[in-house]
Amino acid sequence: MSHPVRPPTQTPAPNLEAESTAAPIPSADRLRIGGFTRLTTIDYPGELAAVVFCQGCAWRCRYCHNTDLLDASAPGLIHWTDIQGFLEQRIGLLDGVVFSGGEPTAQSALAAAMQATRALGFKVGLHTGGVYPDRLRDLLPLIDWIGLDIKALPHDYPAITGVAHSGQRAWESLDVLLTARVPMEVRTTLMPNWTPEQIAELAHALADAGVTHYCIQECDTDRALDGTLQGSLVGMDERIGLIDRKRFASFLIRGD
């Protein structure tokens, strides 16, 4: 995943409530944008894309490396009109736009930004942790591809996110996407202390659920929100040695 470059900021305690969906969908100009990547070949598989980094996330994952994007109350650094102006100049040159974060689905203006992106002829990608399954379900008609982070088995989520019941939300989002048959890649960042047995158990649970495209990566402890995290003493080959890779149509190991 690409990472926006911004100075570090302090982050408040997590708040699981997204912006209200009861009011009319706000304009794309309301989208709070904390960073922007003009060109990437890795954030939307098989496509040349730009990445819009949305501000705010309700979770505080220990290995999070985009900590400057966590504060939902922080003002955006980039205005949507600037993004749209850039995209208008890249019609025919870029294939798609990925909305990443933070957690993009926390912002109710995301739908309008996706609609504006599609109106320009671009494919729409989304990176999400599955924090808000109901909102994700509503956004599906606007999305061409999704990268979904599944961090652990449901009961192990709070130890990573710091939020109770976060695992149930994420796995509900997974079910939503599998049911809708949305093109998707599921990704897992490996906690340093996980054993090969734990890693295989998670991978095989995802295969059982119907996941066909799976990607794993080590966490970047140098930039992690939790400064006490230390890298694994065991090599990647040994850590994932118990995974039956044949159960996935695509199995990738990706550097952070």
TrEMBL record:
The keyword Iron applies. InterPro entries: Aldolase_TIM, NrdG2, Organic_radical-activating, rSAM, rSAM_sf. Residues 43-252 form the Radical SAM core domain. Its cofactor is [4Fe-4S] cluster. Residues 1-11 have a biased composition (Pro residues). SUPFAM superfamilies: Radical SAM enzymes. It holds the Pfam family Radical_SAM. It comes from the Bacteria. Keywords: 4Fe-4S, Iron, Iron-sulfur, Metal-binding, S-adenosyl-L-methionine. Residues 1-21 are annotated as: Disordered. This is Anaerobic ribonucleoside-triphosphate reductase activating protein.
